[in-house]
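User: Before I run my own analysis I want an independent prediction to cross-check against. Here's the chain; please return only the structure tokens and, at the end, one sentence I can use as a sanity check.
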Amino acid sequence: MRKLLFLLACCTFLARCGVVKKNTSYSEDRSVHVAGDPVGEVTESDAAETPGETAETSEETPADAVVETALTFTGVRYRYGGTTRKGMDCSGLLYTSFLENDIALPRTSEMLSEEGKKIKVDKVQKGDLLFFKTRRGRTKINHVGLVVDVQDEEVKFIHSTTSRGVIVSSLREGYWNHAFVKATRLF
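Assistant: Structure tokens:
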């Protein structure tokens, strides 16, 4: 009986949010391109900054605060339904990060996907949400990530995976690029 329960628990664990398979190949090429910020361009507002002051020291936006909070969970192990530093799943990471900044959101990735305004992937910015379908043959969204940076057409997002816990990944990675469904903006 214990072996059966153990086997059932293992199967359930592997079927949860963010299952990552290594060396996956797909029959069709798919690529998501993102327009990055211009690099090396100096604007009048940049030139007007006082010495030692950078754009980073300007007033923090709600999106910046949520991303900063989410990044403090990097390395936390995966736990289905978890919302604490002892363990969290993908939607638990976002739920907790937003809640710690006094923003209440739905608890599941599928319900989160119904919030905010849908945006094109080449328009994403820090604080936007990315949604994925990671299970073959399924029609429901089952994974979510939070955009932490967009540079040189690369979108980096934080999320929680069953294999590595809370990590920052790139939308350029084949697995995530292929599983990507849509992006939304809450702010």
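Sanity check: Residues 1-15, 19-29, 36-55 have pLDDT under 50 and may be disordered.
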